[in-house]
Amino acid sequence: MSSVSSDAPRELADLAPLLLKKERSTATFDVQSLIDVAVGPRDVQEHRKRLLELVKNDPVLSDRDMIHRNHKERYENALGKSYAFAKLLEKHNITDWDDTTTVYTFIGEPLPIDVHRSMFIPTLETQMDDEQRAYWVPRAKAFQITGAYAQTELGHGSNVQGIETTAHYDVKTQEFILNSPTLTSRKWWPGGLGKTANHCVLHARLFLNSKDHGIQAFLVPIRDTKTHETLPGITLGDIGPKIGFQSIDNGFCALNNVRIPRRNMLMRFAKVAPDGTFSKPPSDKLVYFTMVKVRVGIVYFCGRALGMVTTIGTRFSAARVQGATGKGKSENQVLDYENQQLTLFPLIGLSYAALFSHRAIDKLYNQVLAQFDGELGVDHLYLLSQLHASASGLKAFLTEETGNGMERVRRACGGHGYSASSNLPYLFQVYIGACTYEGTKDVLVQQHGAFLLKCLRNPVPVSNSSSLDLLGFLQANPNSTCPATRPEQLRDPEILLTAFRVRALKALLRADANKNSLHYLTQASLAHAESIVLSCFYEGVVGVQDTKVRVVLLQLFQLYALWRIQANLGEFRLSNYLSSAQGAWVDEQVLALLKVVRPNAISLVDGFDFSDFELNSTIGRYDGDIYRALIDRATKDPLNKTDVVPGYHQYLKPLLTAKL
Amino acid sequence: MSSVSSDAPRELADLAPLLLKKERSTATFDVQSLIDVAVGPRDVQEHRKRLLELVKNDPVLSDRDMIHRNHKERYENALGKSYAFAKLLEKHNITDWDDTTTVYTFIGEPLPIDVHRSMFIPTLETQMDDEQRAYWVPRAKAFQITGAYAQTELGHGSNVQGIETTAHYDVKTQEFILNSPTLTSRKWWPGGLGKTANHCVLHARLFLNSKDHGIQAFLVPIRDTKTHETLPGITLGDIGPKIGFQSIDNGFCALNNVRIPRRNMLMRFAKVAPDGTFSKPPSDKLVYFTMVKVRVGIVYFCGRALGMVTTIGTRFSAARVQGATGKGKSENQVLDYENQQLTLFPLIGLSYAALFSHRAIDKLYNQVLAQFDGELGVDHLYLLSQLHASASGLKAFLTEETGNGMERVRRACGGHGYSASSNLPYLFQVYIGACTYEGTKDVLVQQHGAFLLKCLRNPVPVSNSSSLDLLGFLQANPNSTCPATRPEQLRDPEILLTAFRVRALKALLRADANKNSLHYLTQASLAHAESIVLSCFYEGVVGVQDTKVRVVLLQLFQLYALWRIQANLGEFRLSNYLSSAQGAWVDEQVLALLKVVRPNAISLVDGFDFSDFELNSTIGRYDGDIYRALIDRATKDPLNKTDVVPGYHQYLKPLLTAKL
């Protein structure tokens, strides 16, 4: 364990920046080359930096105070940011969708127009027919209307088929009549629905001549576009504070005989003719395609969120010293403790794994999306079901692991991690909703697991057109055992990847043998998702051009994979795939790899290239000057405006002087 | 899987309360008898109910709004509650310490006088000599002074020996001169230190004639008791928002040549004579004895917090239906899904396990405390070190598992769990600090593990006077294997307890063989703590008089124990203590026991006897009327005061009408 040399400065506050500097000098690779891998080519990086500067220099958007306002204050403030965001885009003529997304991400706080951007517009784009799209999309993009995505209800979230809102077609007036027939049928949760949106995409059960035609999507005006007042027959409101997203008006909406024109149904796939004739969509899944898009985006979001948190945690652990190895010795960097490394390093690995996984699934998404313009054949629908299942599985697995990982890192930062000043609490709050929205784990693993079981029982002639190898694991040998004959062999990527494939297949066979057990189905889904993530991670690593970077990422891959075996050792020892001795080697190799990764730890997180502005953390600063930052931010707290707080005279003085 | 009968009411909102009623009719035991076990004798219960009514009827203390205020607003509000609390105690002549604690707990929100009550006064009581105690304690109890406990510094938390604050004795004036010599030496974190306290117990390194005499405790006036202004030489302030405890002014304090009289050092154990002669305390651990007390209290807090969360989660899961087993079938109670049971039921078990563990460790604490009045011999100090180690180990293990469990339950409640309306977010925020304060896991497992290693290497002649069997596991046979020959045998308590003892011993032997590895030491600490918790749980269960309750709690114990094996199966399969077949039996038995526990699930959480007032949750209500509660609370949200929010005119209208 290295310790701080005796000629270190006396002030720990001065030592901290020196320690980070020292860390950067021990890296075995060029950080810029890693940034090229993580962020993209240099011109992309430069372009991002220019956009970041625009946000940093904007008087409204540069606000970084996410912690002192209550829900109402945060919402009002975020409305102001929404306007500033639109003005900034206009001023600098930023129209490219990716660019606007980049700017939005830099703001670092979800805005009331979040769902308008991320779900409302994409839904209009993918679910409307050409004529509808031509009319509505430009209006939405120019903020002439602002929209919400109203699917979830008070009584139904996961089970979309249970939605109670109704849409009855009135052939005489060629209108749909929308109703919330029960208390639990009111829409509940949609972002922006309470106070901001004047339109929404509404999911309701369609009835034609009293015949049920399933859940369909409709475009519904909910507020007067002139006065912003709620339209007749509609009840709107905010559902109240939440863990995160305090800046957004997640809302409720009840409908009482609200009429909309026939052409307000989104008619790209399902259609209702003027006479009430229904045309079925080629797949039931198409109406939820926006959710698939969002799930794909969440995979990226996992990598980004965990990358930010591990950056803060690793820098803090390098800058912080605590506890000496012997009496009179100087104190150790917290990053030199094995437990701290064991918390941080595999999670740095997971951050990269999620980023690489996103690239793979995003490719599949775009492959499917491109086909929407042609005729949707069996092969295309098979690809869609692959995308749907794998997006579900990856979303369930990665959000869970990322959320748990973020909280582990935060706890590993002690009191300073508990303080809002570190920004770790805020990052967790704003992230953790991802475990819930767009499908909770328990629901998604069922969708994913059911797909895998179907593939196991009825091997579909694989079209080979998928950009992601989801089903290769079915070819593994479930009766094999791990061939490693000495500990270091466990680092062999082929041995590792095979171990995860065999585990996934065994879990699936167990699920098949226990058809009524959700537990085994869940295990099968998670094991498969894990195997896919590892493949994507490995594919990403071998694709890296720079040799030194590739070597270091490979070490991170090995550590991450072995750590996952360690965490699920019982499963890998099922039927002795790993022997007891091999199980003990796993521990040994994990600990050995921590030492290998240690000198590159800071540079690995520097590789994510998050700016101090984005991290917004006193303890995660690039320069390591954490103690002055902590004092500085605390001093500015509103409670410190006066020495004696106003409440003293009202409450504390009476308490201290009362005879008790 | 049972499903709702077809004559169920059409409104899910009406169905929910009926479902909870149905649940209560299936219990195999009398809930009141379980409450007797969990809460205590009937007269204690009645007394608690009377105290609860006082809080519920108090105009200030009955406030349940923990979610709409920001940090500053919450602090001011909590000052008001502090005053109301003191007045309530006075009015009803409540002076017994346990009673005041019960009232305080019912308030459900930490107050700025929290540390004054829980640490400041206890420290004066245990660390002051008789004369000091006689002078200061009555003043503190009557709120003539209000105090903080200032140990942690900006640069040092875990490593108390690293504290930089200094106390130099000036023999001429018989005063100590206190200084914060560096930026990182300022006190940082103590509750109430920023704005509320006018005194604090301050830990500083004592120097006599420039000779270092280690960390000692001093009573330091920090604010003028008349004007409440900060005293000369002292800088005070609030450190800013945190995850929880927004109602408290966690503060900072810097000292510049602040002088206090010699007799302001707490002199029960260490002493400084007027001429500067130092008398050593009999044990270095004594100065931190207050922390041990708090750790013991945290064990109880874990059981209580997880009990509240599992109550909310289980009731919600019983009242909520989601998804049908077949088309046209009515929907299933969420509690009927295996994954939901697997999330909830073992954690109900952990809640009871923590409550029983607290009783055991509290007994040991009181045993040690009683000895303080006599001479402290070797035997007593040995008992103190047992208490110190086991309180550390239990605190580290239980806070971690409880925190993780609370978050798992919250996620299992989907969107409604993410909403503040469920109160799950607040309960987590106010709890999760327990993983950090009074020692983080990584530090405590080292203290605990080091104690265990010492006992392994130098078996101390056990005095047998300890009320807790901490070291019996050393007698286990590390080379044995599990004797179960059929799956059901794994439920045998002796087989279960032995498995955990063998695992603890094996983990300790691994730690001993890998002396430089924190990882193995951590595993040893956690495995031992787990074994102790299980013993306490089992002891608690067999001590239950009511046969039906004992049977049900035993089932819960079995489920909990097997679930813990499942979660750590790799360790139990080390050297094949469990065979591969036995490993598979564990899964099987866990799933089988879920079905056994299912009919009693609601009554098991009813057994904690939390009132709706305490739970403060729309979805955890005793009567199951969750949907009306959700709508009702949302409707009252401040954002819903007007249909069109003020921000519309300022920001949204310009955005919607701007040409973009």
From TrEMBL, chains A, B:
Cofactor(s) demanded: FAD
Subcellular location, principal: other
GO biological-process terms attached to the record: fatty acid beta-oxidation using acyl-CoA oxidase; lipid homeostasis
Domain Acyl-CoA oxidase C-alpha1, first and last residues per copy: 288-453
Molecular function, one GO term: acyl-CoA oxidase activity
Gene Ontology CC terms: peroxisome
Intracellular or extracellular location(s): Peroxisome
Alphabetical UniProt keywords: FAD, Fatty acid metabolism, Flavoprotein, Lipid metabolism, Oxidoreductase, Peroxisome
Residue numbers annotated as active site: E438
Residue ranges occupied by any Acyl-CoA oxidase C-terminal domain in the UniProt entry: 511-656
Domain Acyl-CoA oxidase/dehydrogenase middle: 148-257
InterPro entries: ACOX_C_alpha1 (IPR055060), Acyl-CoA_ox_N (IPR029320), Acyl-CoA_Oxase/DH_mid-dom (IPR006091), Acyl-CoA_Oxase/DH_mid-dom_sf (IPR046373), Acyl-CoA_oxidase (IPR012258), Acyl-CoA_oxidase_C (IPR002655), AcylCo_DH-like_C (IPR036250), AcylCoA_DH/ox_N_sf (IPR037069)
Residues that, per the record, bind FAD: T152, G191
SUPFAM superfamilies: Acyl-CoA dehydrogenase C-terminal domain-like, Acyl-CoA dehydrogenase NM domain-like
Coiled-coil segments on the chain, per record: none
The Acyl-coenzyme A oxidase N-terminal domain, residue ranges: 30-145
Catalytic activity: a 2,3-saturated acyl-CoA + O2 = a (2E)-enoyl-CoA + H2O2
Family per record: Belongs to the acyl-CoA oxidase family.
Designated name of the protein: Acyl-coenzyme A oxidase
